[in-house]
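Q: I'm writing up a methods section and want to include an example of the input and output format. Could you take the sequence below and give the corresponding predicted structure tokens, formatted cleanly so I can copy it straight into the document?
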Amino acid sequence: MVCEAGWAGAARLRVMVAEERAKPDLVVGRVKYRAELLPPALLVARYFAGERAAADALEAARAAAEAAADEFREENAGDDGPLAEAADDAGKVTEAAAKARLREVRVGDGFADERAALTEYVRRLDGEKRASKAAKEAEAALAASVVARYAALTDAEACEVVVGSKWLAAVEAGVRGELDRVSQALAGRVTQLAERYAAPLPRLSADASSLAAKVAGHLTRLGVTWTP
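A: Here is the clean output for your methods example:
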């Protein structure tokens, strides 16, 4: 690929056709891309580390908002809970059901607890939706920036990332893995030898003689003649 198209040409994204079943490396809108030589993660790490961190933070916020809504529903959607009337048979409480029930209990002192719980649950669902939207927008913006950066890569930049961050990193990981394997094997062998020779030969010989004498004594008491 590099010989035919040069570093930048080989590293650029390829637009996938509809018939392809492979998983795309990047998606922008409805366009799917495959990176044959340079994985997007390496390009992101080199040029978009800040954007990646910001998108990850937004995704963490989305997950936290989802967990908060789920926790509130689980705590309040039981048979006697304030969300019970809005829950379906499986215990789920959709936003539409919560809002519909909230309209039904909008007034009346007897519904104060239920009204408060429904209001809080709708608030948490709204927070989850806003967090999800922000996370998706950040991911979409990052993907678009990465696609544009692929198109702008020079031969020198593509070579630097592919050789330094991909090939040499793979070699380094392989060498490090082999060193770890040899080190673990050597450490295991040393441990085995240490256990095997923990007792010196004179002590082992003395222990063997003592045990042999005990066996001979038992056999003598039994009337058995034994010559070691």
